[in-house]
Design brief:
Shape of chain A: globular
CATH class of the largest domain in chain B: Alpha Beta
CATH topology of the largest domain in chain B: Rossmann fold
Order of helices and strands of chain B: EEEHEEHEHHHHHEHEHEEHHHEEH
Largest sheet of chain A: 8 strands, mixed
Distance between the termini of chain A: 56 Å
Number of helices of chain B: 13
Number of domains of chain B: 2
Structural class of chain A: alpha/beta
Strand content of chain A: 15-25%
Structural class of chain B: alpha/beta
Order of helices and strands of chain A: HEEEEEHEEHEHHHEHEHEEHHHEEHH
Strand order of the largest sheet of chain A: 8-9-10-5-11-12-14-13
Helix content of chain B: 25-40%
CATH topology of the largest domain in chain A: Rossmann fold
Oligomer: heterotrimer
CATH class of the largest domain in chain A: Alpha Beta
CATH architecture of the largest domain in chain B: 3-Layer(aba) Sandwich
Radius of gyration of chain B: 21 Å
Shape of chain B: globular
Chains: A alpha/beta, B alpha/beta, C mainly alpha
Largest interface: A-B, 42 and 42 residues
CATH architecture of the largest domain in chain A: 3-Layer(aba) Sandwich
Largest sheet of chain B: 8 strands, mixed
Number of strands of chain B: 12
Strand order of the largest sheet of chain B: 6-7-8-3-9-10-12-11
Chain lengths: 365, 331, 320
């Protein structure tokens, strides 16, 4: 612990209040090459053959912290890079640039055996419980394998005990050990997936849309289970989702992503009470409300641009009702607001949002 | 005036030795221009209902009994030719994935013109003009250019708009929309829903909206049917179902939404899972998950009964209403 | 106490009889309801059992020179005039009982076919797994190797290899080890079939979340390939295996027919057909035709079984 703390102290930009952060993400970037291989990168342009590699800019310069015991939610629409962030934190994907520190230790450069201690601490729950369990293994085998792998030399009896205990803790009958995943329903499978992550006693769980493939009544069960695990095991979550009602319920802090860039980082309560970024406002207003008869959501013009040809300046300027010349030229930096939230928007910075929103809405309607 | 009238529709799926019941004698009506939501979890039979209405069930599923009267004609007794004439023309369907409807190797224009000319005697130029008008109606920017584009060149939201335009092409009387916005992003989703609502209102088209999202249903539809394990268990005005659900399952479904509980606390979950078709419990299909279940619930299937404006299939609700009636009589 | 009882039930559940489940499984159900599959399987089983029991049921041992009498050569089968009752399928040009020789020959053909496919599978699956899972440059190199290998026809490679070895070791030694050489050459020549199929499946499986979850759990690449990806890639492997057994049997027969396979002293189906070919115009058609019919039937039923397995294991038909 002390060791980790001193290491953290040596990292630039981690002093001050951030030194207590469990997970630190700094200037994270990830690009995917579209034209892989030499031949594909050759293009015929203007009468000449030129080399031109296009890349998907999935994540662009993202920095945020996750503190112990938090449930940080990353929200955004498809293609905003939220799953890419999750996969990088879970060390499934190396970042193109930037760094990820866990307990002060840099983890994004670790490989092979050196990653094992981190695997013990950071686990992941996936979106699709129908694909995340190996269909050829029984539930018992699925849970025993990681238990055995991370506890070398422990007797079979103890491993069985551990598996039984984990199964009971996620509310699954230990008698199901002999069943195959296809015999279980989606919610039951997601419980098994959570149980599998718990077999290694992690401190941190990255959950990539863990409930969006499930039915409403089952979503509540799984969400409750995750809340229980948070209380019982003190687990810290990085929760990826597109469902804002879940965020409001589950998250302590929210990171709003748009086209791979951060729009707004705020405490959940602050964000839902007073969203500041125009995109956050539009996102919140678009959630269908149960009791509200007449929806009055902010209509955004156009569609999300592709992350291959990112717009210049602010990534949101093509759809933003308040975009002006500065937004089209200069990418806004995150600015801390009086209430502690971080907003990357020129309009908010210049204080020209409020009337703008109104006129923008009228225009669209 | 009734547009669609379904009576005791039963759909079964053939299994190896026997068959399982996917829809168990459901009955409902849709009036002209009425927007009806069908809510339920996966496996409740809501998509199968849509498929059965379009006579699109394919093996191993089949209609085992009942009537589907659409504009006075029984869909179950139609010849294949009559079915083809009805599909896309009088009754259209919008699927979750727009690529199910759109053919990837044909341009948008070719598909729209082909659809039009299959049902109407029109020249290519006339068909093209109609297609253009329809694309404009669904707010597609530069519709002329879109006609010559292929589906893969368009974004998901744009594709779903085009699918809606195709559904509206022949001025159908009823549109069956099966989770039309589930695959789309939240900000796009709201737009598409608004569009669908507007199209149905302005053209007096009936809409059957199949979805799992109660929020969407509450904003778009006038009437809602809640399905569970192949039955309609509650049906009535959308407002009254959302604000005052009667059936314990509907209550559970609404209470399980995160908005219904203060942040950070436990959600009110419904225990257990929906029974599979092959292992349907005796009595009310919901009783294994119901906190109010009695011996009667475990033995006898409750009928869908009218109480004022809503229909509910629940013994407990029936008992409450009986007691209420008794008290009123005593007074 | 509760833990103890839970433990016991877990153990019981683990050792529950699987026979019933197997009988009810989709594949057996599909088999029971497909006459072509049943007939093909029965025919194949009869041929396989008879040939593998050759030492028990064959009246003569074609490998034993003491039991061969050249005076008995070219007796016709029982239904043709001039036959001897003790040779119901007739005899070949060396006086060997054709029934016994076919039994032994079929056994040899099946053994060579199966072993060659095992060699192909081991090579191909390993290379395919590596290529698909590791990807990048390794993948490119291995797949180009496969392309090069495939651009030479199996028979051409085999002919060159066998002709060289025959010249190198002399017919005597070659005859002794002909089985091994044949297995090796047919096995090596066709591994790309496996490698390509396995690679394609691995690429599809690799994208699934259970592989990601295995990686997050810290498992090494070898464990992930062997325990997680390989078991999920078995269906296409089964399908090509059946077809490849048939192909290997044909390859062996062709090589033997060309005189590059089994020597006449250790007859396989191919070398029998070849031996009889010289006599086909002199009236002794049965030496070629009967083993030929056996070969065709054997290859046909294996291919029919392969077709059926492909239909059953087709994920689109099977999981829906």
């Amino acid at each position: 612990m002390t060791n980790a703390a001193t290491k953290a102290g040596t990292q630039p930009g981690t002093q001050g209040r951030d030194s207590g952060a469990l997970l630190q993400i700094r200037n994270l970037e990830r690009r995917f090459d579209v034209d892989a291989g030499f031949l594909e990168s050759l293009k015929f342009k203007g009468g000449r053959i030129v080399r031109d590699t296009r890349a998907v800019h999935a994540v662009n310069d993202i920095s945020f912290d996750v503190h112990k015991g938090e449930a940080v939610c990353v929200v955004g629409e498809s293609g905003c890079g939220k799953s890419t962030v999750a996969r990088m934190v879970a060390s499934l994907l190396p970042p193109t640039a930037g760094s990820i520190h866990y307990e002060g230790q840099r983890i994004d450069t670790l490989k092979g055996r050196a990653l094992l201690p981190i695997r013990n601490k950071i686990q992941m729950v996936f979106q699709n419980p129908y694909a995340s369990l190996n269909p050829r293994m029984t539930i018992g085998q699925i849970l025993e394998e990681p238990t055995r792998y991370h506890n070398r030399g422990v007797s079979t009896g103890e491993i069985r005990d551990k598996v039984t205990q984990v199964m009971q803790s996620v509310g699954v009958d230990p008698n199901w050990a002999a069943r195959y995943p296809h015999e279980l329903s989606g919610g039951q499978r997601q419980r098994i997936a959570i149980a599998r992550a718990l077999t290694v006693d992690p401190q941190f769980i990255v959950a990539d849309e863990p409930i969006s493939a499930l039915d409403v009544s089952i979503q509540a069960q799984v969400l409750n289970l995750m809340l229980e695990m948070q209380e019982q095991h003190g687990i810290t979550y990085l929760f990826i989702t597109h469902d804002l009602s879940v965020v409001e319920h589950f998250g302590t802090r929210v990171v709003v992503l748009y086209l791979g860039s951060i729009c707004e980082v705020a405490d959940t309560r602050t964000l839902f009470a007073a969203p500041k970024h125009p995109y956050t406002k539009a996102l919140l207003s678009a959630v269908p409300q149960l009791k509200d008869d007449r929806p009055n959501h902010i209509r955004l013009k156009g569609e999300i641009p592709t992350p291959i040809d990112l717009p210049s300046g602010c990534p949101f300027q093509t759809r933003c009702p308040q975009a002006n010349d500065r937004c089209r030229a200069e990418k806004p930096r995150g600015v801390t607001q009086p209430d502690g939230s971080l907003v990357a928007c020129h309009a908010v910075e210049e204080g020209r949002t409020e009337p703008g929103v109104e006129s923008g809405m009228k225009e669209a309607v | 005036m009734t547009l669609l009238s379904v009576r005791d529709l039963t759909v079964k799926f053939k299994t190896r030795e026997s068959s399982v019941t996917a829809l168990d004698g459901i009955s409902f009506d849709i009036a002209r221009g009425e927007r009806v939501g069908v809510v339920g979890e996966s496996g409740a039979g809501k998509s199968i209902t849509g498929f059965a209405l379009m006579n699109l069930l394919s093996r191993p599923g089949y209609i085992d009994g009942g009537q589907i009267l659409f504009e006075g004609q029984d869909v179950t007794k139609m010849t294949p030719k009559q079915v083809r004439a009805m599909r896309g023309n009088r009754m259209a369907m919008i699927f979750q994935d727009p690529m199910v409807t759109l053919n990837p190797v044909l341009t948008i224009g070719q598909q729209m013109i082909e659809t039009l000319r299959a049902h109407r005697k029109l020249s290519k130029e006339e068909a093209r003009q109609i297609a253009l008008v329809k694309l404009k109606e669904v707010y597609i920017p530069s519709p002329e250019a879109r006609l010559d584009q292929y589906p893969h060149e368009l974004s998901g939201g744009m594709r779903q708009r085009i699918v809606i335009a195709i559904a509206l092409l022949l001025d159908p009387q009823l549109i069956i929309a099966d989770e039309p916005t589930t695959a789309l992003d939240v900000t796009i989703q709201a737009d598409i829903m608004d569009l669908l609502l507007e199209m149905c209102r302005s053209n007096m088209v009936g809409l059957m909206l199949i979805t799992h999202d109660l929020g969407v249903v509450s904003q778009v539809t006038e009437r809602t049917m809640v399905m569970y394990a192949g039955r309609i268990i509650e049906s009535g005005r959308t407002r009254s179902i959302i604000n005052d659900p009667q059936h314990p399952y509907t209550q559970g479904l609404i209470n399980a939404l995160p908005q219904q509980t203060p942040p950070g606390s436990r959600l009110k979950q419904i225990p257990g899972t929906m029974p599979t078709l092959s292992a349907m419990p005796q009595g009310c299909p919901f009783h294994p998950r119901c906190a109010l279940a009695t011996d009667e619930c475990r033995a006898v299937m409750p009928p869908l009964t009218q109480y004022g404006e809503v229909q509910v299939a629940c013994h407990e609700v029936q008992r409450l209403h009986r007691e209420l009636a008794k008290m009123e009589a005593a007074q | 106490m509760t833990d103890q009882s839970v433990e016991n039930t877990v153990l019981q559940a683990r050792h529950a009889p699987r026979l019933r489940a197997f009988w009810d499984s989709n594949i057996i159900y599909a088999f029971r309801h497909n006459p072509v599959a049943i007939v093909s399987f029965t025919v194949f089983a009869v041929i396989a059992v008879l040939s593998f029991c050759a030492p028990l049921i064959a009246p003569y041992d074609p490998y034993d020179p003491a039991q061969i009498d050249i005076m008995n050569s070219e007796y016709p089968p029982a239904w043709v005039n001039g036959s001897l009752p003790e040779f119901w399928l007739g005899t070949d040009d060396q006086g060997r009982d054709l029934w016994s020789t076919i039994l032994y020959g079929t056994r040899l053909s099946i053994i060579i076919g199966l072993c060659a496919v095992v060699v192909q599978a081991v090579l191909g699956i390993t290379i395919g797994l590596l290529s698909g899972y590791v990807g990048g440059r390794t993948d490119s190199i291995l797949m180009r190797l496969a392309d090069i290998q495939l651009s030479f026809s199996t028979l051409m490679v085999a002919i060159i290899f066998l002709a060289l070895t025959q010249a190198l070791f002399g017919s005597e030694v070659f005859g002794q080890y002909a089985v091994v050489f044949l297995i090796a050459v047919i096995g090596v020549a066709e591994w790309p079939q496996y490698a390509r199929t396995v690679r394609a499946t691995v690429l599809a499986e690799k994208k699934k979340e259970y592989v990601d979850s295995a990686r997050v759990l810290g498992f090494g690449p070898v464990r992930i390939m062997a325990r997680h990806i390989l078991p999920n890639s078995l269906s296409p492997i089964f399908v090509i295996s059946t077809v490849q057994v048939a192909n290997a049997i044909i390859s062996e027969a062709s090589l033997s027919f060309l005189g590059l396979g089994m020597p006449p002293s250790q007859p396989s189906l191919g070398s029998l057909i070849s031996a009889g070919f010289d006599y086909i115009l002199s009236g002794s058609w049965w030496i070629t035709v009967i083993p030929g019919v056996v070969l065709v039937v054997l290859v046909l039923v294996i291919n029919l079984l392969g077709d059926w397995i492909r239909d059953v294991l087709n994920p689109k038909l099977y999981k829906g």
